[in-house]
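Hi there,

I know you've been waiting on this one. I reran it after we fixed the sequence typo, so this is the corrected version. Both the input and the resulting structure follow.
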Amino acid sequence: MAVRILFLGPLRDLAGKEAIEVSAPLDWSVLLQSVGEELAGQLQSDRVNVACAGRVLSDKTSLNARDGDEVALLPPVSGG
């Protein structure tokens, strides 16, 4: 039983990989533990969003990913 965590944009550079798989279920605290200290610090920023099963969470700390879900870590978007 696993959840796939996708690292997008500069978060992928920090992680050094495109994705990892972790055991399900996955909540906010387990996500922070799973990605390492530097990424966990980035994720706590208000500018970083989290999507689970294709939906951006309005409150990322309410994350509750189940087996087979994909969690995408969305870096800040700059406009131009």
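Quick highlight: The two ends are 41 Å apart (CA to CA).

Best,
R. S.
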